[in-house]
């Protein structure tokens, strides 16, 4: 198909029309030129296809076709398993083919800046590397089926409060290191067909008309080739948006914005080539789908089974003392909490799926062991009922072990608004405390999309985080609880002790239309580690029913340069008595002391299946970027020369092996001597050493440091003299010595010459 030729044949009106939807879910067709109508649908963890576009909405209110709800982003990211999320993508891609959906609206990859964001359940992680790797694998999965994705929401859409109008105010280094990489990695490793721009502004400019974002960074720097679509209703000024690189407005604009585009081209304010380019990008993708579309069958029963298999790999065993889990088949176990029969497994809003089937936990568990059940509290609200409490306690007394099914009711977290606190419903906390008084053998299962405070955490023996694990959650949960499956999920986010501890607590969600990202690069574990703070459960944490060890760590490299690839190898052994999957995490710490940096950052991970006693060698590759920070001085990624430590572990707080390595830098930070340069800055450049000794130090002899009979006083005055010298700009030497301005300028010149 010659798309350029096709664009040439279109009228101005047809081209403008192509740049907005026909209705809620379709792009426009042009019959005259055989451009067909194609459909897009939500995402990300299953299909929300609203067959009746008249009844379309972006809040998950009206019905969609029945489909299969897979584990949400919060859960599937915890699998730390690229192949798993890829295969989930493949299945969703097949479903799109079967349902004639050209693009699925996901993955949603915004960074979890605060646990309060109402949409965290859809998002992947607080860590940009993990989010990027998982996003790329999901996309590769979906797109292998010849349908596209729309990675969203680009960018800095990390809260629901004022999401359509507010401005995310962040500095460039923070944006590049924390909020961009999930998108960047996805673009570079998986070529998403489309990108969805977010509602919010970034440093004052709407994402939907932000040329720096949509053209300079996304296309020129990262090489994005597809089309950008707006989030539903994100367009502010349509013509500005088109100029900035926002190709498709969704949903329909009622014709108004199409007319504005036509006018702008006619009166010369919008170059027609810009419009042509947008249309070309849209048609490229439209026909990429159209030419390979093949239909198929949406086998819901089969996909439901798949959803159960995926769910098993996502659950995170947070605590397991006195072997409370797995549950023995021969003991009486009390299940308490309505979530046991009505699990919460998905969140509210545009990702809400009309489920084909829902598996509860109680039914399969009853086939595995002897279960007593009491509702205890309702799954959908915070309401305490004395009779239900009594019954629950009676049940807990009769059983040898208790499993409480706790979690957040639907209304506690959803798209559209943020949580105001991190607590579970009061009735649940209260009942857990009461149960602990009558039976100490208690494990808690959690159904929630984001961290909650757990005032009882130190007193219960087990905690299993099931997150929002999709419609087949019950089947998977019963298998994990009874040890038919071994949990292998790890936290993709930190669980803080309390809301007040979170990095952006003082600034979230912002005031007067501005969300200040004042914590900068210190999100999640980067913050807690830097401050040496205690957390409830650290990033990367997750237990198993077996044990693993890491040994024999090795680093292989071809050379010392920052651009030479680094291979890290280690042996992982299953030292326990069950088969299980280990997640080996690789973190890098910068020891060069060049810039303010986190204690360590995740730069690699791999998941391996090991039978009891089995040992496997894992291997991870690092590149320049693994060591680099974003230097605004260089406008580039920069790995300073010096020492780094590579660490391997099973969580950010459980490091089992480490090795230091030294890099030679390929690049240097720009440095020019002028009268404001300090003596200390000069001293950081070894090539200036002899000149400093010869030309600068003699001038500074006046600051010799005191000689005092009192040793302590002498030490202070020496320190002070040294500090004075170190922080003294060349310009100031004039005030303290008899050097003239002219001499000092000449000195700057000589120093610059010596630098070359
Ligand atoms: C959401 C998007 C979603 C779109 C269409 C918006 O409100 O932010 O994630 O894809 O609606 O439903």
Structural features, described:
The protein is α/β, with parallel strands linked by helices and 756 residues long. The protein has 23 helices and 26 strands. It has a 6-stranded mixed β-sheet with strand order 10-16-15-14-11-13. The longest helix has 21 residues. The mean pLDDT is 96. The protein binds beta-D-glucopyranose. The site of beta-D-glucopyranose has 7 residues, from loops.
Architecture of the largest domain, CATH level 2? Alpha-Beta Barrel
Overall morphology: globular
- Look at the structure and name the CATH superfamily of the largest domain: Glycoside hydrolase, family 3, N-terminal domain
- Nearest-integer average pLDDT: 96
Q: Report the biggest beta sheet as strand number plus sense, adding barrel if it closes.
A: 6 strands, mixed
Separate helix tally: 23
* CATH topology call of the largest domain: TIM Barrel
Overall radius of gyration: 29 Å
Spatial strand sequence of the major β-sheet? 10-16-15-14-11-13
Low-confidence stretches: none
Q: What structural class is derived from the secondary structure elements?
A: alpha/beta
CATH class of the largest domain: Alpha Beta
Helix content: 25-40%
Oligomer: single chain
Associated small molecules: beta-D-glucopyranose
End-to-end Cα distance, whole Å, is 55 Å
How big a fraction of the residues is strand? 15-25%
The total of beta strands comes to 26
Whole-number total of structural domains: 4
């Amino acid at each position: 198909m010659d798309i350029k030729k096709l664009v040439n044949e279109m009228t101005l009106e047809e081209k403008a029309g192509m740049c907005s939807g026909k209705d809620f879910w379709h792009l426009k067709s042009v019959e005259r030129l055989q451009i067909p109508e194609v459909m897009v649908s939500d995402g990300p963890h299953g299909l929300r296809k609203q067959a009746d576009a008249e009844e379309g909405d972006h809040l998950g209110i009206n019905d969609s076709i029945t489909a299969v709800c897979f584990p949400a982003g919060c859960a599937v990211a915890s699998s730390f398993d690229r192949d798993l999320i890829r295969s989930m993508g493949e299945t969703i891609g097949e479903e799109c083919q079967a349902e004639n959906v050209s693009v699925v609206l996901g993955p949603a990859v915004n960074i979890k800046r605060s646990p309060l964001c109402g949409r965290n359940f859809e998002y992947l992680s607080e860590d940009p590397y993990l989010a990027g790797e998982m996003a790329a694998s999901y996309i590769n999965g979906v797109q292998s089926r010849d349908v596209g994705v729309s990675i969203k929401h680009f960018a800095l859409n990390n809260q629901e409060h004022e999401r359509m109008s507010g401005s995310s105010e962040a500095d460039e280094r923070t944006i590049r290191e924390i909020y961009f990489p999930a998108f960047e990695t996805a673009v570079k490793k998986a070529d998403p067909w489309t990108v969805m721009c977010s509602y919010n502004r970034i440093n004052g400019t709407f994402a939907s008309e932000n040329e720096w974002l949509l053209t300079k960074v996304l296309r020129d720097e990262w090489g994005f080739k597809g089309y950008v679509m707006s989030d539903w209703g994100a367009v502010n000024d349509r013509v500005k948006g088109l100029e900035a690189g926002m190709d498709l407005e969704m949903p329909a604009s009622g014709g108004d914005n199409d007319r504005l585009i036509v006018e702008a081209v006619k009166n010369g304010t919008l170059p027609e080539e810009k419009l042509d380019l947008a249309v070309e990008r849209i048609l490229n993708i439209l026909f990429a789908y159209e030419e390979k579309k093949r239909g198929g069958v949406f086998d819901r029963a089969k996909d439901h089974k798949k959803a159960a298999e995926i769910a098993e790999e996502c659950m995170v065993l947070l605590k397991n003392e006195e072997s409370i889990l797995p549950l023995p088949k021969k003991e009486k176990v009390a299940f308490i909490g309505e979530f046991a029969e009505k699990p919460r497994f998905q969140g509210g809003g545009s990702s809400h799926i009309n489920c084909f089937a829902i598996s509860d936990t109680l039914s399969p568990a009853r086939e595995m062991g002897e279960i007593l059940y009491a509702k205890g509290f309702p799954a959908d609200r915070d309401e305490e009922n004395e009779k239900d409490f009594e019954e629950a306690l009676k049940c807990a007394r009769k059983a040898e072990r208790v499993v409480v099914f706790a979690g957040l009711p639907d209304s506690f977290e959803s798209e559209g608004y943020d949580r105001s606190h991190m607590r579970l419903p009061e009735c649940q906390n209260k009942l857990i405390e009461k149960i602990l008084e009558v039976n100490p053998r208690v494990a808690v299962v959690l159904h929630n999309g984001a961290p909650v405070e757990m005032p009882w955490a130190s007193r219960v023996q087990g905690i299993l985080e099931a997150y929002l694990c999709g419609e087949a959650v019950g089947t998977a949960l019963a298998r994990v609880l009874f040890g038919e499956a071994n949990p292998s999920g790890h936290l993709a986010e930190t669980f803080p002790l309390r809301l007040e501890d979170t990095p952006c607590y003082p600034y979230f969600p912002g005031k007067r239309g501005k969300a200040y990202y004042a914590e900068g690069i210190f999100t999640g574990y980067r913050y807690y580690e830097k401050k040496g703070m205690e957390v409830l459960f650290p990033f990367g944490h997750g237990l198993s029913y077996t044990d693993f060890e890491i040994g024999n760590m090795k680093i292989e490299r071809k050379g010392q340069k920052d651009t030479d690839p680094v291979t890290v190898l280690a042996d992982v052994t299953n030292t326990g008595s069950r088969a299980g999957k280990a997640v080996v995490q690789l973190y890098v710490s910068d020891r060069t002391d060049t810039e303010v940096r986190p204690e360590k950052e995740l730069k690699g991970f791999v998941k391996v299946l090991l039978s009891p006693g089995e040992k496997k060698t894992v291997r991870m590759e690092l590149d320049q970027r693994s060591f680099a920070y974003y230097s605004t001085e260089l406008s580039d990624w920069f790995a300073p020369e010096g020492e780094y430590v590579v660490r391997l572990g099973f969580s950010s707080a459980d490091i089992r092996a480490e090795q230091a390595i030294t890099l030679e830098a390929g690049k240097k930070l720009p440095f020019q001597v002028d009268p404001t340069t300090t003596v200390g800055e000069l001293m950081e450049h070894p090539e200036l050493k002899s000149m400093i000794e010869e030309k600068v130090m003699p001038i500074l002899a006046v600051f010799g440091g005191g000689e005092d009979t009192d040793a302590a006083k002498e030490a202070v005055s020496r320190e002070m003299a040294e500090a004075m010298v170190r922080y003294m700009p060349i310009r100031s030497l004039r005030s303290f010595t008899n050097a003239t301005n002219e001499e000092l300028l000449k000195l700057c010149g000589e120093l610059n010459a010596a630098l070359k």
